[in-house]
Amino acid sequence: MSDAAMAKPVDVAVGILMRANGDVLLGQRPEGKPYAGYWEFPGGKVEQGEDIFHALQREFVEELGVRVLSGEAWCCVEHVYEHAHVRLYFYICREWEGEPQSLEGQAFAWQGAYSVAPLLPATIPLLEWLDRVRFAPSQAANFAG
Ligand SMILES: Nc1nc2c([nH]c(=O)n2[C@@H]2O[C@H](COP(=O)(O)OP(=O)(O)OP(=O)(O)O)[C@@H](O)[C@H]2O)c(=O)[nH]1
Fold this sequence. Notes:
- The chain is α+β, with helices and mostly antiparallel strands.
- The chain has one domain (3-96, 105-137): Alpha-Beta Complex (Nucleoside Triphosphate Pyrophosphohydrolase), CATH 3.90.79.10.
- Helix content is 19%, strand content 36%.
- It is built from three helices and eight strands.
- It has a five-stranded mixed sheet with strand order 4-1-6-5-8. Strands 3-2-7 form a three-stranded antiparallel sheet, with no helix packed on it.
- A hairpin with a 4-residue loop joins strand 5 and strand 6 (85-97).
- 8-OXO-guanosine-5'-triphosphate binds next to strand 1, strand 4 and strand 6.
């Protein structure tokens, strides 16, 4: 087993901004990070002692200048990369303030049918699940803060 697989997972908060028509926001990982150039849903690592949804709100302000107002806890996925063992907490967010800006020099795109590639390996299986809920209201718990 690799060192990354043995390591305690790192919690990551990920936000799926979803417009009323079902389009979702994807961003491209900037240069200097592992998997630079790969597309992902925006987010980042949860800091020590930080609430996961608050980490998501912080990352959206830092990366995109967007204030996320609420999110539904949607699913949690673990993945072992060669560089890290991550536990990804995905939230579907339908309420936010501000238009996304490229504050870290990253590209981003609103997507209906996914036309960007490559996507982060851990995120790919989610796209099929996401298509099942994109046009149906979720019953999941809603967090606001
Ligand atoms: N944001 C995000 N991260 C994802 C997704 N899928 C996925 O496997 N990840 C993984 O989750 C981790 C996120 O870490 P990051 O490096 O982007 O976090 P960060 O912005 O806090 O980075 P930093 O270390 O520069 O502060 C990476 O290992 C990344 O590969 C996804 O859809 N969105």
